[in-house]
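Exercise: predict the fold of this chain.
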Amino acid sequence: MATCPMTAPPSDQHHEYCYMDISIAGSEPRTVVFLLDTRTCPKTSQNFAALCASSAVAKRPSSKGGSSSNANPTPTPTYRNTEFHRIKPGFMVQGGDFASFDGTGGHSIHGSTFPDESFAIKHDAEGILSMANRGANTNGSQFFVTLARAPHLDGKHVAFGKVVHGMNVIREMASVEVDERDRPIAMQRIVVVDCGVGMGNLGDVNNKSAKKGDIKKKKKHRRRDRSASSSSSSSSSSASSYDDDDSTGIKRSRDKRRKRARSQSRSRSRDRNPRRRRSKERRKKKKRKSKSWHRDREDEDRRRSRKHSSRSNRKHRKRSRSRSR
């Protein structure tokens, strides 16, 4: 298969993230971010990043004839506008065929295929990014993302990254309706609307949040400077305000004394009124009566309980005597 020359981006810290904006069944595209392990698999990561960074747009071959031979003669290597052509719920989702869109085409930037690089990364979790192949040393452009642990793939497929954002999108991809060949039906195609190196829109959001954080920090520093200046000015003026504080304290104590005197005089004037005196005396008498009544009631209850207990004791004694006879 013919290859198209491409310049791959350098595999440094700034290019270890790749993203894809994926649309499911015509819905709004959502971002999935992959973290590539450039140290363990530099060549494989370079191939994937180059296909993500390509500005070309893949074109779906015409359906006339119904075979992969009608694919584009010189397809441009890219992941943009490609489809996930194989869905296996509970196992994996596969894509990356920019030539025939059915899993029979595609090639790498290093040639038609390139050899297996490393099997150090295991398929031990969901979200593992791995290369699809047709056997040993046949890596091209097709890749897959695991939906669960797949230890039977270890040593057969080169895993070179993982999903760090958008795993919910990958899970939703696994729920589309497929045909007998595990391909999504026409009304529920899964399309890579956009792709690239980095974190896409998430990177812009992170940059904005970082800028907001810097602005907040600056505001905090300004507030601290203002509070420090105000505290210094207050400390300088505190020595001169001691006398004023003493005078205000004396005034407050005087005011409290006056209020107490007024309240006492009012209570005395109320006691002088004969009607109020009588009402107070009546209330006191009622309280005394109620207390005495409650006491009498309690005494009566005690007496009754004593009588009842004495009667019951007498009856018990009589019965015991009769039994003994």
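Check your answer against the key: Residues 1-12 have pLDDT under 50 and may be disordered.
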